[in-house]
Amino acid sequence: MEGSGGGRHFILVHGLCHGAWCWYKLVPMLRAAGHRVTALDMAASGAHPARMDEVESFEDYSRPLLDAVAAAPAGERLVLVGHSLGGLNLALAMERFPRKVAAAVFLAACMACAGRHMGVTIEEFSRRTPADFFMDSKIMVLNTDQGPRPAVALGPKLLAAKLYDRSSVEDLTLATLLVRPGCQFVDDPLMRNEALLTDANYGSVKKVYVVLKDDASTSEEMQRWMVDLSPGTEAEELAGADHMAMCSKPRELSDVLLRTANKYD
Question: Fewer Cβ atoms within 10 A, N terminus or C terminus of the chain?
Answer without folding.
Answer: C
